[in-house]
Amino acid sequence: MLTHLLIKNYALIRQLEIGPSAHLNIITGETGAGKSIMLGAIGMLLGERADTKVLLDSGEKCVVEGSFNLAEYDLQPLFEQVELDFDQTCTVRREISPAGKSRAFINDTPVTLDVLRSVGGRLMDIHSQHDTLRLGADDFQLQIVDIFAANQRQQQIYRAAYRTYRQAELHCQRLLKEAAEARKELDYNSYLLDELNKAELDGLHQEEMELELERLENMELIKASLNLALQSLNTEEQSTESTLRNALGELRKITAFAANYQALFARVDSLFIELRDINNELADEEGRLFFDDEKAYQLRTQLDRIYTLQKKHLKDSVADLVALRGQLALKVGRMLNLDEEIAEAQAAQAQALLVLRAEATSLRESRQAVTNQIEEATNELLWELGMPDARLSVELAAVTPGPSGADTVAFLFSANKGVKPEPLKSVASGGEFSRLMLCIKYILAGKTALPTIIFDEIDTGISGEIAIKVSRMLREMSKRHQLFVISHLPQTAANGDCHYFVYKDNSAERAISRIKKLTKEERISEIAQMIGGANPSVTAVKNAKELLAMY
Q1: Which letter does DSSP use for residue 451 in this model?
Q2: Is residue 296, in this structure, part of any structural domain at all?
Q3: Which of 116, 225, 382, 482 could form a disulfide with 104 if both were Cys (CB 3.0 to 4.6 A apart)?
Q4: What is the pLDDT of residue 205?
């Protein structure tokens, strides 16, 4: 529960500080005094967004801080979930700097707004007029039924089954989409693959083939050059071999006279041997040469095919074409395997749907088990609050499984005898809405573990004996929860354990909101003014005392 609240530099609030009761706290004051501003500041502790517009003094930071006693509430798992140290005393602080930077802290540890919302939402529940309007929303009505059914575990199991089903469904959809696209390209990809396979690219060396074709196409030139080289070396008139033979004969005569003559002889002899070897190789090469027209045709045809494929696919080498062939083979093979994968995915989706439907049925049964209880408890309370002919009906309808289950909930309401219940949003008035919401909150109070509940004018549109009954309901709720009730009703104001009065201080150049805890005498005066106006009569004062004595 909230043990201490500090608000600084927020809207019209210079500084506000209270240490509330653990049970029923009443907040009163004239319209515009700042009661709703307090709610806005407290909302910051629950993670609501804010900016520099909330600053009373634009040169100072805004601070909202709440201290909570968590001893009686099982919140340690929540703190562990958001990786925060747990302590029975928890301090939540929110700051807005003049530069507009927002910071949040839980027990002096910086946290994100998401973490603040997770923790703050378990510490306090603010029921405003906006929440009363939400009562007509389908999702809010479903939430009410689930809280009453205490089916959190079943919801978790269902949500897990729903996630599994959605994953299986999305996987199946992706495969079907992929298959549809692949089928469009299958014929073309198969044609391209067949074309590359027919090219028999494996083991081909394009540069070697190009050189070989060039040699074959220049065969006549090569053969003629070899022939002329042989003739140049072996012409009768000037035979190189004959010249070297004559030189050897002359050098042989003088080898015995000097070592260098012997060396010269050896070198010329080596030239003679090399020349004869060259002559023989030239003759052999020239003799083997002939133009292979068929081979040239094959090379030319194969290279033309390679060039055509390279141009078509914008590739630079045979290796690139081989890599492309592999990619096309994978695509074509993928298409052939997709049907099997799709069948497996569809089977998995069907199985996940069976599990989902089973969990949806379990969740629906938990909801159906409490609809009559909600109706009976609510209608009984409405009767006590002066609406004896009012009737609430809770209807469940099956729908396609979604994130919250396979049901929709409709709250149907009739305030008058003989009138068929219709959807809430189309039949209930403001006062009826407020009383109905109070009844539902009263019923749910015993089902939830919220430490602190704040009601903003929940008693709108009622008076007299009904107002007293509403006050007693609030008193009963405050035995299990800490309550803050913003009210304009004297019956409600007299009911509190602690009474705070919010007012505007106009003593300075700029009006600011202040709050003070009223003494017993001040409470009598305030309640009397709520009954009889600014100058209450003796009767109004007497009525105020009687109201205070009732509780």
Answers
A1: S
A2: yes
A3: 116
A4: 85
